[in-house]
Amino acid sequence: MSAPLNGDFATLADSAAPVRIVLVGAGGMGRAWLGTILANPATELVGVVDLDTALAETAVSDAGLQPGEGGVLVGTSVSEVARATGADAVVNVTVPVAHHPVNTEALFAGLPVLCEKPIAPTVAQALSLAATAEASGQLLMTSQSRRYYASIAAFREQIASLGRLGSATTEFFKAPHFGGFRDEMPHVLLVDMAIHAFDAARFLLGSDPVSVYCEEFNPPWSWYAADAAATAVFEFEGGVRYTYTGSWCADGLETSWNGMWRVNGEHGSAAWDGDTAPQRQLAPQNGVPAAIETPTAMATVPAEIAGSLVEFVGALRDGRVPSGEVHANVLSLAMVEAAVRSAESGTRVAIAEVLEQAYAQAVSDEPRDDVRQALVAWGAAADGLT
Question: Is 107 helix (H, G, I), strand (E, B) or coil?
Fold first, then answer.
């Protein structure tokens, strides 16, 4: 599904002034975003919102700023802090269960939102947010931060030169001892981490998934309460098979956090270790093996969340639809939900079925008349997301 060149969301009246931002969430990831906002000359931090105002004040102070009147305003209400500071936009770094209410409040307060992944805990809530963005006329963008590397951009260019594609694989093997909620959550690898790879697969292949078959298990030595390893085989448009296999309790020879990738097409193969420059080898010509090629130079681009912020600000200034816009991002979340459903049922699951069932639930559960009307106007999830 391709995004239009320009969106229907409001842009900034002054495209030269720094974007005044309210950050929602002052935990560990919130602090990372706080530093990223301060480091970008195109953005200005004017407020921090958190239910724990002491935590927010400490985060602001630790960044060398003054919390409160005359400095960075701290509070518990997104709309109130935004109104008091004259904010232009919101960055939402709350826990996933809070994404829907925080995004909704901000959007209907007239504020575009850049939200940490996942955009919502469920596909039904994600569809509700897509309709909320339409009803409010504001941009809602997900920060799929793993799209923002010079090496992944170079890898995508190599893949485009391979002609018709046959298969793509990601291997992800890490052994993090997080402690806390991740150690207890169900489907921890699929829900908390695999969305990065699933979203990157859509980005790299330039197409969308059709179905998935997934198996989960928990190695005997796992320190996680639920399954921390999985293999999922997706069918993409055109018949391409994308296989993701990984584990979060795999000590030794660990992969990059981006995983290890390989894509095969009719003209050859390309591979990426997740960190350094990708490699490509085309098919032999007249029996002579082709040389293995590595890009001699790659563009210097802001990486990870810094890249997300740059694209968000650019979209607010010129109206160009960012790659993480909510409508485009729903399918990445649908891949996760479909993989979980397949692992639980032991059957192949169609992405279209997940979307349409979520759409029916979204229409049924929606409390706002304007958002429900926007959802109903789609007629079907697939039509609303195209």
Answer: helix
The pair of three-digit structure tokens given for residue 292, joined into one six-digit string:
């293995």
The residue type of 106 is: A
**Gap between the terminal Cα atoms of the chain:** 6
- Summarize pLDDT for 241-292 with one digit per residue, the tens: 999 999 999 999 999 999 999 999 999 999 999 999 999 999 998 888 899 9
Strands 165-173 and 241-247: parallel
DSSP string over 250-307: --SS---TT-EEEEEETTEEEEE-SSS--EEEEPPBTTBPPPEE--S-------HHHH
Q: Which residue has the tokens 């003209």?
A: 267
The answer to whether the peptide bond before residue 295 is cis (omega within 30 degrees of 0) is no
Domain 19-146+305-325+357-385: top CATH class: alpha beta
Q: Are 268 and 280 in contact (CB under 8 A)?
A: yes
Torsion of CA 260, 175, 216, 193, to 10 degrees: -60
Query: Looking at the chain, which residues constitute the CATH 3.30.360.10 domain(s)?
Result: 150-293
Rounded Cα distance, 252 and 26, in Å: 34
In the chain, list all ranges with CATH 3.40.50.720. Answer: 19-146+305-325+357-385
How buried is residue 51: exposed, middle or buried, by Cβ count under 10 Å (0-12/13-18/19+)?
exposed
Quickly list DSSP for 33-62: HHHHHHH-TTEEEEEEE-S-HHHHHHHHHH
The CATH code belonging to domain 150-293 is 3.30.360.10
- DSSP lists the bridge partners of residue 232 as 214, 244
Q: Using CA atoms, how far apart are residues 330 and 325, in angstroms rounded to an integer? A: 9
Please tell me the pTM assigned to this model: 0.91
